[in-house]
Structures are given as C-alpha cells and as structure tokens.
Amino acid sequence: SRMNIGQLLETHLGWALAKQGLKGATPVFDGATEEKIIAELEAAGLPADGKITLRDGKSGKEFDRPITVGVTYMLKLHHLVEDKIHARSTGPYSLITQQPLGGKAQFGGQRFGEMEVWALQAYGAANILQEILTVKSDDVVGRVQAYEAIVKGERIQAPGVPESFKVLVKELQSLGINVEILNAEDEQIELLEDPGGYATPNLGINLSGFESGADF
Questions:
Q1: CATH top-level class of 89-161
Q2: Least packed by Cβ within 10 Å: which of 7, 135, 167, 187?
Q3: What is the CA 157 to chain-centroid distance, rounded?
Q4: How far apart are CA 65 and CA 54, in angstroms?
C-alpha cells in the first residue's frame, strides 16, 4: 500500500526540468505521462531511465549499477518534539469500550494495535501483553484492584475480563447470535454487567479527579 510511484516520476521530471532551467506542475490525475518525462530527460541530455553511475565517497570506485537520482520538492514541516512529548499515568476512558482515549489533546494513552501485539507475541512476552490488554486498558475491575494492591503494597491479582470483550459479546447478541462463556468444566460464566457490583476499595485517595467540596 506504500508503493509511491509518483515520487519516482517526480524525481525524474524534476531533474530534467532543473537541468533545463524550467519549472513544472503536474496535476494529480492529469499529470505528465511516462513518455513525456522520458522526452524531457532526453531533451535535457540526460539518460532516459533517469539513472547515472555514482562513485563510492570513500574509495572513489564506481558502483556496480546505475542509481536513480533527481530533484524532488522538499517541504519543511513544523514537527517538534517539544510539542509532541506526552505521558499519562491515569486519565479519561471511553464510555463504551472503557479503553483510554487517544491523542495528546484528550490526555490519552499510547495505542497498542494489532501489529504491536504480534511483536510481543513473537518475543514471547506473555505477561507484559496480558497486562497491556487488561489492567492497563479496559479491565475495569482489574485496574482498580491493581491500583489498590500497589497502594497497599500487596500482590496484584490476576486480571479479569476486558470490557471490549463484553462489548463484542453484546454486538454478537444484537445480531441474534447466542454467545455463552464457558469454563473448563463447560459451566456457563455470567459476566458482571455493572462494575458497581464490586466493593469499592477504600484507599484514602480521591480517584475521581475532582477536589472534595467543589461544585459541579
């Protein structure tokens, strides 16, 4: 999906026009054809394939094969680390998936997509992967219990069921598909719909993000 042939054509045409002291503009869907670019290269006295023989800068020897060279349009973009740096401990979550929001503007988390998951799977980092996909994301009960364990200096319990899995089950049920969760003994497991059914730990810490006594 990233095969940008337009960049190569621009490289050839830019070289030919620069050699002739000309400027060119080629619209996206009605630009210079391959034949036109070859004609411009030949008019500038350049090889029709847009390649020349280069030399090794250290040894001075010629490379074995001709190499594509040319002139392309360069644009300096205003992307600075100072503006992009971002970190998050806890923050807002999506109301539907209960996963952290995305982007610096929303004080979101770092997205861990399919290919990142595959990378950790390839390295066998099962525990890190489980943590990222549960208590660091949308395991609503597990992340509260993990926070409680850290504050109290206790051992973190095994993670629970991610909220995204519950959403998937609901989507399948909305399509008329009966989905049941079974354990190793083929016994049905009921997923708790309301996290409020769990006892709220008393950590002595305000986790709501609001100061006590404030009016909203």
A1: alpha beta
A2: 187
A3: 29
A4: 8
- Classify strands 181-182 and 188-189 as parallel, antiparallel or unpaired: antiparallel
Asked if pLDDT for residue 210 goes beyond 50, the answer is: no
Residue-wise pLDDT for 116-127, tens only, equals: 999 999 999 999
Query: What is the rounded CA–CA span in Å between residue 53 and residue 75?
Result: 28
Cα separation, 63 vs 167, in Å, equals 58
Helix 114-122 to helix 126-133 angle, to the nearest 10 degrees? 160
pTM of the entire structure?
A: 0.58
Beta bridge partners of 141: none
Separation between Cα atoms, residue 35 and residue 85, nearest integer Å: 47
d(CA 137, CA 160): 11
